[in-house]
Amino acid sequence: MGAHAPKHAQAAQDIRADPILWEACKDDAQSFCKDVRYGGGRVQACLVRACFCWALGEGGGRLQRST
To answer: What is the pTM of this model?
Structure first.
């Protein structure tokens, strides 16, 4: 993506491109998705999977790492 692409389009590829989104999600991204490469929406997909597990009752308010 070029430097002139909208921020949300860049953030769709790399969560760090949107400072507000990154600030809100960075702890969970670094905890649950630490082995996931940034770019291509991979971290966002990882967070969705982690959130899905939480929604199924495996977490308690904040995302919890499942073992």
So the answer is: 0.63
Cα–Cα distance for residue pair 5/31, rounded to 1 Å: 29
Measured in degrees and rounded to the nearest 5, phi and psi for residue 10 equal: -65, -40
Mean pLDDT per 10-residue segment, the chain (67 residues): 60 84 89 92 89 61 50
Rounded distance, CA 18 to CA 63, Å?
Answer: 21
Cα three-residue angle 62-64-67, rounded to 5 degrees: 175
In the chain, helix, strand, coil percent, each to 5? 60, 5, 35
Which residues, at least 6 apart from 46, have a Cβ–Cβ distance to it below 8 Å? 29, 32, 33, 36
